[in-house]
Amino acid sequence: MAVPLPSLQSLAHRARLAALISELRPTHFQAPLTRLLAHRIPTLWTLYRGIMRDAPTDMIRSHMRDFFRARRSIREQGDITRELRKAHARWDVFRKANAGDKHLQAICLRYSRMIEGAARQVKADAVFEAELAWHERIRTRPVLTGACHKPTVFNGPLPRLRPQPLHITGMIVWRRKARMRRMARQDDLQEMTSFLEAERTFESQLAKTPDAKSFQRHFVENLSDWRAPIAEDLRAMRATSNRERARAKMPYPPELLEQIKSARRARIENKTRERERERRGEMTNRLLRQMRKSPPAHKLALMSPRRRRMDSIARGVSEVGYVAKVKRALGYKLRDPHAWEVEIGSPERRRMLDRMAEEIERENTWRRSQVESSMRAPTDPV
Description:
This protein is 70% helix and 3% strand. The chain is mainly alpha-helical. A hairpin with an 8-residue loop joins strand 1 (143-149) and strand 2. Helix 2 packs parallel to helix 4. The longest helix has 43 residues, at 166-208. It starts with 7 loop residues before the first helix and ends in a 6-residue tail after the last helix. The relative contact order is 0.04. The model has no long low-confidence stretch (mean pLDDT 88).
């Protein structure tokens, strides 16, 4: 069945509808919307300048400047429209507040104080984070230990650092892997050389047979050309191996030796000062680790609870008082065996201390007698 063609009136009606609908289609710009003058001129010359002019306080003005700066990279039309509506709404509030609206003026002042407090908090957080970062850098900074790395094929003479910098570790690891790759490549090249020699021998023997026809001898006549790239690679590998052997025999520079010796002296001085602080009563990390230790398991299983407690007490650094008594009982060698005598005072002041002790004892005896007499006294009947 043949389909009838549409009439002229129908075609004209369709054309009118198409013309009306085409105007409603979204326009696809070749450039982002934010680059068009139809967007930039109203936004910058009207909206932005109006907000900067009508902002109630400098804090709000600075905040709105950051508001626009943070949204400069937006490209989606929907996002741009949403942010422009926010800016226009705030501009309306600013204009009404400047016109005399008391309620909006109070809101703007409160908003300004809130922005100011947030800005102070951001600055405080930045200072705190910078301080934490500085402490972390100080905590993890490489420190000379006084030891040294012996020269090897992977590294020359180096001072030993703790923690070891990553670039030194990466250099040594990379050279180890490169050496392994180079040795594998050298084996492959030597195998290729043996293959070339086998091919040359095969061609030579083949040419001597009576049934052999004339053929072009690639390996017999051009063997040097085949070997040239292999020899070049082997020459470069031998040069690298020579540099490695020279690196392993490199002597320590005098400046490095002096630096290592200075680090050893500083280490001894630091440890000496640490021991002095511990004897004065400071609890250091080293002392904590020492006091938390215990005897080996096979010895700890045979120790009594009293012996375990004495061992725990004797791990302290004190050499006076009860700790010194425990150490002498366990057979420890004390640095100053007569240090405990400080507790009973010097000989010239011992008589005064004895007199004070007698006075205190008499006072305590008198007070006890007063308490006992008050307890024996009869009470009045109620």
